[in-house]
Design goal:
- By secondary structure, the chain is an alpha+beta fold.
- The strands form five sheets. The protein has a 16-stranded antiparallel β-sheet that branches. The chain has an eight-stranded parallel barrel with strand order 20-21-22-23-24-25-26-27. Strands 29-30-35-32-33 form a five-stranded antiparallel β-sheet, with helices on one face.
- The longest helix has 22 residues, at 425-446.
- The protein is built from ten helices and 35 strands.
- Helix 4 packs across helix 5, helix 5 runs parallel beside helix 6 and helix 8 (425-446) packs parallel to helix 9 (490-503).
């Protein structure tokens, strides 16, 4: 069993067990003391209700749960337990939790007190509303003064909070079914979590305009409560039952698949030199070389990049974190001289002020930074004839909040990361629901301007929301981790293919979903299911994607986009199963060949109905 887990997830660690609780037509999952996937007659009402505590850098403080009591009767269910959240400083926040559910709804309350001053970025309830079937639909907000705001859920991703001072939210779940979620104990507001590719709108405690981190004072108790009331017509239909098989619809498009890039990092140069042969196997067209003078990157990094470029023959984009510590003309000229001395020849230059890698939340003071127009002008002058890219070295969130003058650039670029807020398997795979809106929002902002995405990986290569990413020596599923074991397993292969399938309709010119070496890379390290130095499963996916560069795409619509996503050309179909369950897929025609992508590439029976395991499959039509 541990070998199977290692192959699938890159770790033998199991996810926490969940327990299904039911009351009439209401059904919800209890996991780690919080509620997930609240459904009524099969329709998703809420994605989660959770009492969460973040440390000063927005890292998650896990709850130690004691005295758990779960009771179920014909009328409903109740849950009680004690939770202790421990800060890095050693302070403990102790909370008495109570949950009650009936056929009409759920209540979730927390009564808390700290044994010492507790430094936190947030301590309180978070409620997640789903995006699919909700975006663009009517919503009613009751504010703290009792006034009612009637509006629409945001369709294009909002950079700032769409709703503030929230006492209750009423929304339509499905025809004939409505839910009202009430919030008490503090001031709540909402953010559009699609900014971070979370598949939800998040209502949370404590407005971001207030200072953070802040302290929960010693021995000063506080309480919060969430209640959900559901109203349904007697004839409101339940959700259609899941079909036995996933059906596909293929449609021709004029879209072409992007070229594949691979990231380079100075700390990985030795591993990158040893893995140069992988670049040709994958069909990489671009090297995205990270360079940050403020982090000590200098001539050695540039010389290493020049060597890799010369040996591979690939185009180089320098991803430059501009220090902005000197007059820009002088600073850019000095960097250009250093690059010239190294022998590195650039195809494109991507520039981002180093300070813009840190997020500026709503209500915060923007850090000092030269106007982007001045940064781009200085870069043009120092690098004549080199295509210039801009945007954000971090995530779409930052690009949405600080929109760049796209007319001054040859292309726009940003990254995404799926473990900013949650790192469980389901949440990571649900990010594709939001990623569709991210690319649509970029196109709405910048039109048909050339567009690049990445490096985007499961693990977080930088933390715009705190002082550092989180170390993960135990190889767990933790938010904001700088290494994630699932990158190394079939999970990573499925995630990579699903990502490419999701962004392809936006027609980016370059897509980068890995580095060459290291924890974000293509080559296995010690203690993985793949032998050290071998190719991780996602490498085989990227090889298939590399072979599609420039190819005309066929759109793939699946009846279960929450389970199966795909890419196709006229004669090939690539499918990703993003669930832990085997999925039966009905193909559009009898295939000539069906094979797993990754590992030994084992062939599957060539039939019109195929069993799709967790991971990725190639179908030759």
């Amino acid at each position: 069993m541990s070998e199977d887990l290692l192959r699938l997830y890159g770790t033998s660690e199991k996810e926490p067990e969940s327990r299904t609780l039911m009351a009439g037509d209401l059904r919800v999952e209890l996991q780690d003391g919080n509620l997930r996937t609240l459904r009524f007659r099969g329709h998703e009402v809420l994605r989660a209700i959770a009492f969460l505590v973040r440390d000063k850098d927005w890292g998650t403080c896990g709850a130690a749960i004691a005295n758990l009591v779960v009771e179920e009767t014909a009328a409903g269910f109740s849950v009680r337990y004690d939770a202790r959240f421990r800060a890095p400083s050693g302070a403990n926040l102790d909370c008495a939790i109570s949950i009650a559910g009936s056929a009409e709804g759920v209540t979730f309350s927390a009564d808390c007190v700290s044994d010492a001053d507790f430094e936190t970025a947030r301590a309180g309830f978070v409620v997640l509303h789903p995006v699919v079937g909700v975006a663009g639909e009517p919503v009613e907000i009751r504010h703290g003064d009792g006034s009612i705001e009637r509006a629409l859920w945001p369709d294009r991703i909002e950079p700032w909070q769409p709703f503030k001072d929230i006492a209750a939210i009423t929304h339509r779940v499905a025809p004939g079914i409505a839910a009202t979620t009430e919030f008490s104990g503090d001031v709540f507001e909402m953010e559009d979590q699609r900014n971070w590719t979370d598949g939800s709108y998040k209502t949370y405690v404590r407005p971001l305009a207030l200072p953070w981190p802040y302290r929960v004072p010693k021995n000063e108790p506080f309480s919060q409560r969430i209640s959900v009331a559901i109203e349904a017509d007697a004839d409101a239909a339940p959700v259609a039952g899941a079909a036995d098989a996933v059906s596909l619809r293929l449609a021709p498009t004029p879209l072409r698949f992007p070229e594949i890039g691979v990231g380079l990092r100075p700390e990985c140069l030795a591993g990158e030199r040893a893995a140069l042969d992988v670049l040709k196997m994958v069909g990489v067209r671009h090297l995205i070389a990270h360079f940050d003078p403020a982090a000590g990157h200098g001539i050695d990094a540039l010389t290493g990049y020049a060597e890799i470029a010369a040996r591979s023959g690939l185009k180089v984009t320098l991803e430059l974190a501009v220090p902005c510590q000197q007059p820009l003309d002088e600073e850019m000229a000095d960097i250009a001289a250093l690059i010239g001395k190294s022998g590195l020849i650039l195809d494109t230059l991507f520039v981002c002020p180093a300070v813009d890698r840190q997020s500026t939340p709503p209500g915060s003071t923007w850090p000092e930074c030269p106007p982007l127009e001045a940064v781009y002008t200085a870069a043009r002058a120092a690098f004549p004839g080199v295509r210039l890219g801009g945007g954000m070295m971090s995530y779409f969130t930052e690009l949405n909040r600080k929109r760049v003058p796209g007319e001054l650039l040859d292309y726009i670029s940003h990254c995404t990361n799926p473990i900013v807020h949650a790192a469980d398997d389901l949440s990571v795979m649900q990010t594709f629901e939001a990623l569709r809106f991210v690319t649509r929002s970029v196109r709405a902002l910048y039109g048909d301007r050339p567009y690049r995405i990445g490096p985007s990986t499961i693990a977080m290569r930088q933390n715009p929301y705190g002082s550092a990413t989180k170390d993960n020596p135990a190889g767990g599923r933790i938010p904001m981790a700088n290494a994630d074991p699932r990158h190394n397993g079939a999970f990573g292969a499925a995630w990579t293919l699903a990502y490419a399938a999701t962004v392809a309709p936006a027609e980016p010119e370059v897509l980068t979903l890995s580095t060459l070496a290291g924890p974000f890379g293509l080559v296995a390290g010690e203690g993985e299911a793949t032998p050290r130095g071998g190719l991780r499963p996602l490498t085989h996916v990227l090889a298939r994607l590399g072979s599609l560069s420039g190819a005309v795409l066929v759109a793939v619509e699946t009846s279960r986009p929450d389970a199966v996503l795909g890419l196709a050309t006229a004669d090939r179909l690539l499918l990703a199963n993003i669930t832990r369950d085997m999925q039966t897929v009905v193909l559009p025609a009898l295939p000539r060949k069906v094979s797993l992508i990754g590992g030994d590439g084992a062939e599957l029976p060539a039939a019109e109905r195929i069993g799709l395991p967790y991971g990725a499959v190639e179908v030759v039509l």
